[in-house]
Amino acid sequence: xxxxxxxxxxxxxxxxxxxxxxxxxxxxxxxxxxxxxxxxxxxxxxxxxxxxxxxxxxxxxxxxxxxxxxxxxxxxxxxxxxxxxxxxxxxxxxxxxxxxxxxxxxxxxxxxxxxxxxxxxxxxxxxxxxxxxxxxxxxxxxxxxxxxxxxxxxxxxxxxxxxxxxxxxxxxxxxxxxxxxxxxxxxxxxxxxxxxxxxxxxxxxxxxxxxxxxxxxxxxxxxxxxxxxxxxxxxxxxxxxxxxxxxxxxxxxxxxxxxxxxxxxxxxxxxxxxxxxxxxxxxxxxxxxxxxxxxxxxxxxxxxxxxxxxxxxxxxxxxxxxxxxxxxxxxxxxxxxxxxxxxxxxxxxxxxxxxxxxxxxxxxxxxxxxxxxxxxxxxxxxxxxxxxxxxxxxxxxxxxxxxxxxxxxxxxxxxxxxxxxxxxxxxxxxxxxxxxx
Length: 437
Ligand SMILES: CC(C)(COP(=O)(O)OP(=O)(O)OC[C@H]1O[C@@H](n2cnc3c(N)ncnc32)[C@H](O)[C@@H]1OP(=O)(O)O)[C@@H](O)C(=O)NCCC(=O)NCCS
Description:
Carbamate kinase; Aminopeptidase; binds coenzyme A; alpha/beta
């Protein structure tokens, strides 16, 4: 390892200290030869004062037990109904997996405890079929999980839940990880399965926003994506919607997967992320009409420059909209001038009904961060009526048109709008999408 690698790792440490990570292991991973490496990685996380909660599945072990005993099971992974026989095998399989995890954690000097933290109720009758012993998480006993964590003990949560009368229910471990993460306000969920993250055209998809993850899941449902991975993708998007900042889908059969994902900028698996800009998304072809309608009034009053449909279509990837409850409430565009390392923030607009609710500032900050992420050093805006907004709310300074990139300067002169040139350095630190932290 190079010293620079270590430096790279250390930059994440303060951000992660005392934060909760939920690591969800498929049963297959616990049984794999790579499990011993994962245990070492978990010990590293612990030594960096990261609070880890382990959640495990047992689908592979249930299937194996059923085959050994020649018993038919109703469903292996806790997503379908659980009959009496399957529950019995499920309890046995989960106990075995738990035991293996406990042994492993002890071997790397980590103190651990079985956490009976899932309070469940019957999943009930779905589509007319009684799910019998399949449960749904009602609540997570956060108090006991915190007690363990505060004592430096790693809680291990099985895919089982219990109701007030002591009845046992089988629950899906992806769902358990989601519920535990939400209830414990975890920073991350890391799903370790035997799949290699999400692939498109032979390349692993490094990161997806919530909307992109939902879109991906919708397109891939029934189109050949491994159902286990699809379930993780669904749960990842839901977890992000419910406040978990980052969910990682990793191949747990790969050596060093956990550390490479967490402590490198690019990671190796697929990360689904939420951020404070999650209502902001790219403009698609189908939105162009809506964007034009949105800005029409502002164009008429000369606040914004007139754009034709063809103008927007020609630079569609530059345009972003803010969408709330499926309604477009604002937009912004970012045009890049890579040679000068400058970006233009343009077409900033917030619907009159939503003015003064902070959306204008949010769109402005979003564009600035995007510009920084694209490696731009400065960002500028040309404004006829909102220059005070840029100055007072965004910290922009007025410059002369000479500050503009030459090709932009030509258009500026040709337009005769005499807009004020507002400029500032692009945000330097926070990355919008690429940071694994
Ligand atoms: C400018 C604009 C984007 C602000 O959107 P917004 O969602 O209302 O902004 P925010 O809610 O984040 O901020 C509101 C604050 O900015 C101030 N503000 C809004 N428009 C302003 C303007 N034109 N000049 C100066 N200050 C302005 C408000 O008074 C308010 O101040 P306060 O927080 O001290 O009360 C919106 O008014 C708009 O779409 N204007 C027309 C289009 C335009 O001129 N775009 C810029 C050209 S690129």
